[in-house]
User: Fold this.
Amino acid sequence: MAFTFKAASSAGRSTPHNLNVLQRRYHAEFYKTVAKVMALRETYLQERIIFVKSSEMVPILKGLGARDEDFELIQKISDTTGPDPTLEYRTVTSARYCLDFETRCIQRLEKRPCGPKTEEPYKRYDPGVQREFEEAPLEMQGNTVVQALMLFKALVFHKVPILPREKLDYTSHQWVCTVLNVRIFTDDRQGVQGEPAPGGVHSDGSDHTMTVFLGSSNMRSDSAVTYLHDNLETTGAPLWETNPALIRARVQHRDFLDTLIFADNHYKRCVTQLNACDPSDRALRDMLVIFTRRPKRDDHGLGHAETQALHTTCPLQIPLWLP
Assistant:
């Protein structure tokens, strides 16, 4: 089944920009922002989960240096996503970054395919398939809202103890950060049902997972509800087969930049399907999904080999501020 993917218009584009958070250190508002983030970090330290509403998230990102014009532009960036090789109802772009807590910088890494998660707690809809997504465009990388989101996440999880995953290098001072721009759609006219989590209850194999709402159209109000489950829940189970006693949190991204962060190895996750308000039109839901984990050890043996090689055609280096 073929679909048309709309290219981004050149009109109204912002010049890509590298956010320098160090320049914010001389603004009083920056330290008010840091205080807000540290309060959220305290909750994350206790619960290993936070859900930050749009009304709180927008001023935090502005306090970290995100430019006003980039908030509007990021709401349109999902128009540039490309076909998912295995799911007809999803379009994706991706980019990999290195967060180096020793040199205090964020750099873009070269493109690598996504390996199969055969050893992770995930019942795959595409077992053994190595997926390759289109690369995130310069408009995404150079958007200061996206850059500020990575800075915000680093501030939240910095020095927060977590349950380690097997065969990741926790002696490293680096983190691998994968940023996915994901558009899910449902089209009842063509029998296409959008599933944000086609594998049912699952874990994504990262250390810290962040999901950020960019926007939607024709989305029914009961759509795309996220449930976090105790790790005792059965991997691959659909929501209706889960044990209510094992549900640890329920959140729904409804407003621009509603943001969820959780320690991925402390919970399993499930998301309900995307339903259309008007079945005669297509329903859309746009998200940023940001996975952060330690580098793989040499004996990991899952998917592609780890590499920290920098991106040669779309380089990025921005400073990382940590208290």
User: Anything to note?
Assistant: The first helix runs from residue 28 to 47. The domain at 30-184+208-214+251-266+285-319 is CATH 2.60.120.620 (Jelly Rolls).
